């Protein structure tokens, strides 16, 4: 908390739930998806715990930041990456003659927390796999698109010029991470999911240090520290609570064990990513209550949000995975339909999502199909097919982005 203390000393200001009386905040929680989340989770919303969370808007992962300073900023990027990969695959011990920062990071991530339950990790992974393409629709059209409505959350994306990188590449990277952390045994120490978590943690630190060094106009008071712990909490609530709510909206049935599993899986992933453990919710009630507090410091969409949203919508047109133009246009319209169905209308209008004819048809069919499919096909078969289909989509994206002129 040292960085927060000095920040308060310099500015003599304490963060408040500054948007709690704003129309966008009230509408979301009384008429929009926020109200649906409360009904879905049984949450009891209030601001009584705001001061416990607010400091984390100015809190960052100092452990990973120091690793980046000691390794990535003192060597060629490729050499630094190879060194980190060796630590990920082979592990480290107390006696290794290496930087203390590296030792601290890996001794923490190699330590299995007392609360970790392998059976729940498995249940969470199975829900992600058996939901098949609904998982990918949820991630794209609810979690990612909905996140663009929070203007301050997106500032690191804007200042690191994510728009120039292109939505196809961004989507490919997100999909690569999500698929690899949600397979069987992915999160075992030294396994593929563990590797992705550590690398992603260091990418966040590298981006944060770059922003602080090169972007002199960063507004810490309003935007918090770049990629701060509270924003990270909100992002990973997207992968658990929002993802689960999306599957529910799309007509998927989820068992109690699977629901516990999805929160447990993302709690552990968040732990490996350096998010303070007590910020990571255990269930949908807790997640909704935490999310309520965080949304009170976020303004609605701005012009940057709209650019990001439309970049994501147009990804279907730009992406050459589908051969013919009419196929790409159809896919774009399907994603637009799902966005209108999964997000509330007010959010869609703020993000200027196009209003297309017959936008309710595909989501209605999806819900109907899912309810029948869940009853007719065994859970084991759905897991197997979902895993295969998701890996195929990832393979297609990686092929496009690794062997093409995408930035």
UniProtKB/TrEMBL annotation:
Its EC number is 1.13.-.-. Residues 165-360 form the ER-bound oxygenase mpaB/mpaB'/Rubber oxygenase catalytic domain. The keyword Oxidoreductase applies. It comes from the Bacteria. Transmembrane segments: none annotated. GO terms for molecular function: oxidoreductase activity. Pfam families: MPAB_Lcp_cat (PF09995). This is Rubber oxygenase. It comes from Chryseobacterium fistulae.
């Amino acid at each position: 908390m040292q960085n927060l203390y000095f920040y308060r000393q310099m500015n003599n200001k304490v963060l408040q739930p500054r948007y709690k009386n704003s129309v966008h905040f009230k509408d979301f929680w009384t008429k929009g998806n926020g109200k649906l989340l409360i009904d879905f989770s049984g949450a009891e919303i209030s601001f009584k715990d705001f001061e416990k969370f607010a400091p984390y808007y100015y809190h960052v992962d100092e452990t990973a930041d120091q690793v980046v300073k000691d390794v990535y900023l003192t060597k060629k990027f490729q050499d630094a990456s190879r060194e980190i990969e060796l630590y990920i695959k082979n592990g480290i011990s107390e006696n290794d003659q290496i930087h203390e920062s590296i030792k601290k990071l890996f001794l923490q991530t190699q330590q299995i927390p007392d609360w970790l339950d392998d059976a729940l990790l498995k249940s969470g992974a199975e829900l992600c796999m058996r939901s098949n393409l609904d998982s990918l629709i949820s991630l794209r059209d609810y979690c990612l698109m909905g996140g663009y409505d929070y203007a301050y959350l997106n500032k690191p994306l804007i200042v690191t010029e994510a728009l120039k990188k292109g939505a196809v590449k961004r989507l490919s990277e997100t999909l690569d991470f999500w698929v690899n952390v949600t397979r069987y045994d992915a999160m075992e120490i030294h396994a593929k999911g563990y590797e992705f978590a550590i690398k992603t943690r260091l990418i966040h630190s590298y981006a944060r240090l770059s922003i602080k060094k090169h972007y002199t106009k960063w507004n810490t008071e309003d935007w918090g520290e770049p990629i701060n712990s509270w924003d990270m909490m909100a992002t990973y609530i997207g992968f658990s609570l929002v993802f689960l709510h999306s599957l529910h909206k799309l007509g998927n049935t989820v068992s109690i064990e699977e629901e516990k599993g999805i929160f447990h899986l993302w709690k552990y992933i968040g732990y490996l990513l350096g998010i303070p453990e007590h910020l990571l919710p255990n269930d949908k009630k807790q997640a909704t209550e935490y999310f309520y507090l965080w949304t009170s410091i976020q303004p609605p969409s701005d012009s940057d949000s709209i650019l990001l949203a439309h970049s994501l919508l147009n990804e279907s047109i730009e992406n050459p995975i589908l051969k013919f133009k009419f196929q790409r246009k159809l896919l774009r319209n399907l994603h637009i339909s799902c966005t209108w169905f999964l997000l509330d209308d007010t959010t869609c209008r703020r993000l200027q999502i196009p209003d297309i004819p017959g936008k309710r048809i595909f989501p209605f069919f999806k819900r109907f199909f899912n309810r029948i499919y869940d009853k007719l096909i065994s859970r084991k078969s759905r897991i197997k097919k979902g895993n295969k289909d998701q890996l195929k989509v990832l393979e297609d994206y990686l092929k496009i982005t690794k062997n093409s002129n995408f930035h």
